[in-house]
Description:
This protein is mainly alpha-helical. The protein contains 8 helices and no strands. Belongs to the UPF0126 family.
Amino acid sequence: xxxxxxxxxxxxxxxxxxxxxxxxxxxxxxxxxxxxxxxxxxxxxxxxxxxxxxxxxxxxxxxxxxxxxxxxxxxxxxxxxxxxxxxxxxxxxxxxxxxxxxxxxxxxxxxxxxxxxxxxxxxxxxxxxxxxxxxxxxxxxxxxxxxxxxxxxxxxxxxxxxxxxxxxxxxxxxxxxxxxxxxxxxxxxxxxxxxxxxxxxxxxxx
Length: 206
């Protein structure tokens, strides 16, 4: 079980590292900027989660996460060198997959260390969105989580579905798959059909 979760965690880190690398390419950063942006996107949320849970930070204990980040960044750079174009839709899709991976992994880790379902959903959401938030702030972009898009909301919906499956006594594997699928589907659907929460507009004020 722990081995399987470890590989899923590595995959989530790699996917978010791809997202960070694509953003670095968009912003014309140098090699150091690529590594920094890929790293903060990939491990920022998990770092916050572990600090809140008062646990050893995962990447300090296991250096394989850095190899996953560097490998994902390198593969993305090679692909971009060949294609010579910035695929915005791929950045959004990569971000959606990373969001779903990290949401279920953060939630599962919180539950395994005794967090209540409500706190586990909150920590899963933090794990998923915080790295992307740091990425966007560094790049002087309005973070997706603050734009009204179904971003953090997708994590909350997926997390609530995970908890519902958990209380139906489904296996951990099943809960994670269901939570991942719901989070990803909600996010991709929001991107395709432009679902979003109401946005505060000062023009409507008297």
